[in-house]
Amino acid sequence: MEKSKPRIIKDYDKLDKNIQEQIKLTYPEGFSQYLITFLNKDGKYISALPFETSDYYYLVRMTQDEADMIISEDEDYDSEGILKDDVKETFEDRYSDLDYLSEKTGDKKEDDPEDNR
Q1: Of 30, 50, 57, 102, whose CB count within 10 A is highest?
Q2: Is 48 helix (H, G, I), strand (E, B) or coil?
């Protein structure tokens, strides 16, 4: 039986900067369309952005409006809400050793000959 990862429920602004950057790589087109809703221990509905690392499963608390505001105020995203190419490249270089991130962002370890058709 596989042991489940510890779950961490936290606000985006309380996360470590490195985790925030990894989240941006996973969700380069913004967060709002990926929010999920769950019942907390008090029986209240909470919306959150799921994010998984090799060690933890994060539920990053945010509403739809907060998700949109985070992206619109973040200088790493352009006016369309897309992660800027130069920022994306910097983060990809910084976190290239994280296998779980490469799988989520669709990065390839080597060229696929089918792409050259």
Answers
A1: 30
A2: strand
pLDDT-derived band at 26 (thresholds 50, 70, 90) equals very high
Helix then strand then coil, in percent of the chain rounded to 5, is 40, 20, 40
Beta-carbon count within 10 A of 15 CB: 17
Task: Specify the pTM.
Answer: 0.80
Rg of the chain taking only CA atoms, in angstroms: 16
Q: What is the pLDDT of residue 61?
A: 96
E-assigned strands of the chain?
7-11, 36-39, 45-52, 57-61
The first and second tokens of residue 39, run together, are 């019942």
**DSSP label of 77:** B
- Going edge to edge, which strands form the sheet with 36-39? 7-11, 57-61, 45-52, 36-39
